[in-house]
């Protein structure tokens, strides 16, 4: 289990927003995905897939949108995770606007580990210590 909170700054570009200048809701999932990749590490993810045939799939996502980020904001994506049994990792993500009093968006996301045949396999714990 990780007690650490990881931070990833994300610049909001015009292309990230909808017609009202607010971040399109699905883009937060992209920001959270980038954060997980940063925490685990690109090289680790590539090795897991290419050498061991292992990857991660979203099993469940619970997202709360409290406030929309806007064009020009730099969000602080805050991420932490915990191992939940042999097959699941629970990630907690929050997107904070500059000077925010609460997260603009929060998400609890459950990932499972799968092989190339899309069969559930135990998480390779050596990479999550």
Write down the CATH class.
Answer: Alpha Beta
Low-pLDDT runs: none
CATH homologous superfamily placement: Hotdog Thioesterase
Q: What is the strand content?
A: 35-45%
The biggest beta sheet reads: 5 strands, antiparallel
Inertia-based shape: elongated
Please describe what this structure looks like:
There is one protein chain. This protein has a single domain (6-127), classed as Thiol Ester Dehydrase, Chain A, CATH 3.10.129.10. It has helices at residues 27-40, 42-52, and strands spanning 6-11, 54-65, 74-84, 88-96, 105-115. It is elongated. The mean pLDDT is 94. The N and C termini lie close together (7 Å). The longest helix has 14 residues, at 27-40. With 129 residues, the protein is of the alpha+beta class. A five-stranded antiparallel beta sheet has the order 1-3-4-5-2.
Lay out the secondary structure:
Layout: E1 6-11, H1 27-40, H2 42-52, E2 54-65, E3 74-84, E4 88-96, E5 105-115
Antiparallel strand pairs: 1-3, 2-5, 3-4, 4-5
State the main characteristics.
129 residues; 5 strands; 19% helix
At a glance:
By secondary structure, the protein is an alpha+beta fold.
